[in-house]
Structures are given as structure tokens and as C-alpha cells.
Specification:
Length: 92
Amino acid sequence: MYNVAQVIEEKCVAKKGCRLCIMYCPEANCLDLNSAKMVAEVNIDRCKGCELCVVVCNAAKHQAIVMQAVSASGKLMSEKGESAALGQAYQG
Ligand code: SF4
Ligand code: SF4
């Protein structure tokens, strides 16, 4: 099991021009703009779990990215909403 980043689409402000996480992610073809939905999107097969995207998104006060556990087979272990609630609780 390991952690990958996941974007909470409702909180992402990419439609207003934010590209911070996309600029800072050190992995190629990992974090990109989904131009159909106009939200940032993580390719979980490429994510190395460094959390840099979480740091920059939180620094800009968007808090639209959470880390989520993935099973050995590469499947997300929980729904995005669950970890979002958990993330908010941690941030107090
Ligand atoms: S930094 Fe946050 S708000 Fe900005 S594009 Fe990335 S996920 Fe969306
Ligand atoms: S955790 Fe690191 S590798 Fe994964 S999407 Fe965020 S910045 Fe990219």
C-alpha cells in the first residue's frame, strides 16, 4: 500500500487559471489539466506520493488535493469525499 495525490474537483480552481500543482509536480505526465472538466487531475500510475502538490495547493489556500491510500494492485482504497473530510479534520 502507498499514497497518491487526488484532486477534490469541487475545490479545484483550475477554471480560474490556477495551475500551481501542475507546475510543481516533479513527475512528467503525472498532474495535468483535465480540459473537459477544467480541473487538475492526477495520473495515479505516475504519482510518486511526494506531496509537493498538496503543499502548494494548501499554501494558496485551495486545499483541493489530498493524499489517498492505494492498494498494491493500484486501486484507490476509499472514496475521495471520505479522505477530504479526514483532511479537513486534520487541518483543524
Ligand atoms: S493547485 Fe489546487 S486549486 Fe490549483 S489547479 Fe492544483 S488542485 Fe486545483
Ligand atoms: S504527490 Fe508528487 S508526484 Fe504525486 S501528483 Fe503530487 S506532486 Fe506529483
